[in-house]
Amino acid sequence: MTLTAVTSDVTRAAAEAASDAAARAGVEVLKLKGLEEIQQAVELHRVIWGPEDRDLIGVSTLRALSHADNYVFGAYLGDRLVAAITGFVGWHEEKFQLHSHILGVSPEVQGRNVGFALKEHQRAWCLSKEITTVTWTYDPLVSRNAYFNLTKLGAAVTAYYPSFYGQMNDGINGSDDSDRVLVEWALGSPRAVEASLGDGIATPDIAELREAGAEIALDAGPDGSPIETTASSDTILVGIPRDIVEIRRRNAELGSHWRSASRSALEGRLNDGFVITALAKPGYYVLERVS
Predict the structure, then answer these.
(1) pTM reported for the whole predicted model
(2) In this predicted model, what pLDDT tens digit does every residue of 202-234 receive, in sequence order?
(3) Measuring CA to CA, which residue among 125, 133, 114 is closest to residue 74?
(4) Which of these, 263, 258, 290, lies nearest to 276 by C-alpha position?
(5) What are the tens digits of pLDDT across the range 187-207?
(6) CA 20 to 30 Å from 42, out of 10, 24, 214, 218?
């Protein structure tokens, strides 16, 4: 798709999709500019991630990013800030891009597609500035984030970074290594356009994938522990737990085993020609060889 096409028809459609998404979620998306708004966003981060004395991004840094006209926006339910998102411009593979650093949604409105509304606003904002790619990282073991990124947004996963942030020790990551995968969201791609309509991307059928030659490299055993197997096809299936956050809370050792096993199954493949294109039910990454 050419840049001209992206900055005309696709850009207009993206703005309409973003407006529709915000209306369905019942929120208004606004830039966070003033100090009070910035402080509210930082406090919201504390509520979501905890503990209360830890800032995932500080007030002064967030204020500076907003002042420099990076992407710092919030979703308002009436006059209350219920979600916040921050991204900054940079370079990826020698192309101008936005790196979406943090997105947090208040527990009180989770499940209402507020996060989706913010990401669609981000997509429209980027396209209006001729930015056609957004990247971010997430923990590949968190299945709800995998579903959101791959199915709801139509993005892809292209790289694996072990212990990306070092030790975090927050309410979501616990004491586990902070492994992350890189998401690349091609904003003008057919997948992103399809996802912007709100119904997401079609979920692949595991049985059909297996019949076509896909092999399972990681799965859960009867006791919930990870089981690695040898797989060498051009389509690989990697299972992840339904709720790794709960596993870490009640059994840190089991959570650590899942980290090691998923790293073994994903790191080498993602850094050697495979891309994650989908999340198949009931929780399998679909890795396809592209080079």
Answers:
(1) 0.92
(2) 999 999 999 999 999 999 999 999 999 999 999
(3) 114
(4) 290
(5) 999 999 999 999 999 999 999
(6) 24
